[in-house]
Give the backbone structure.
Amino acid sequence: MHHEDVPAGDEELARLFAELPRTASTGEGDTDRIVERLRREGFFQARRRSFGWMLQAVAAVLVFLTGTFAGSRYAHRNSLEEMLDRKQLSVADRVLLLQRAGSAYVRAAQSYADATAHVDSNAVEVASRVLLGAAHAVARSSLDAGLSERLTTAMQPVVAPASPARKPIIWF
Amino acid sequence: MTLPHLPFELPDGALIRRFLDGDERAFRILYERHTPRLKMTLQRLLGTRRQDVDDVVQDTWLAGCRGLHGYRGDAKFSTWLTSIGVRTTLNHLERRVDRDTEVLDEMSAPLTNGPASTIDLERALAALPDHQRVVVVLHDVEGFTHEEIGEQLGMATGTSKATLSRARQALRLALSEGVSNAS
């Protein structure tokens, strides 16, 4: 900002302008009045920095909880038990389910065997009966080309040598 | 309310940042630093309606604070604030045009307690039409250029120059004849 265009005849006017006071006194309560108005508009209620920090913390907790919940839901939805209960499964999913169930059987049997220090007749019977029951179920479902039937025949003396007429028990 | 001490010498930029962070002390310093000058400027711009100056000053600060996030520091804070004050004053003058009947009563109250010549000049300024008074105050008292005035008032630079010329002519006439006769 600067002065410009002061005609020669305006020197007196310019001198008078220069003598004019540039400041006015302010009222005693003016500052408090404007501070109060600003406070009503929320200017001094919370520091943005601390508010931002709190917001970030809350957001982080929410993200953590959401992730935990989503992970838990995903794990539950894909558990063996949950998939067994579901009706809407594709053929590929059902093949996968069968593989997983078989793997689970093998792992459970291995775990059972590991838990016994010597040959446990109960363990052998349980494992055999489950396997036999599964073979029977597969045979009834016509899912193989006679393999399960041969397997059933091969296992029959081991499971029930004294009572061949006894029906197999399906443990599933 | 007693607030912890904050150095009054802090520059405007630092105070603005603190104020935007919610520091009331920073705002108080800004307000007390800039309001005396702002108030006198707006008082002159208001002319015969200068009794409204306190409200206009408050409205100016409110508008300034609301728009402070947009202040980039390109101009001095005082200049930026004065620009807001000019717009606020013009809006006020447009709204209060129906109160022109107060003119004669308020003319008797001098704006300053200075020499008679400056009192006469203040009265002559107050008696000018609004648009002339605003141009002459911004140019001859506040030192704005015609380009800046044109931006502020939304007028061409040539219009600002012509208005200033007419305003000075009216002031010279008023001062030579006596303000009371001119009004």
Observations:
- The first helix of chain B runs from residue 12 to 20.
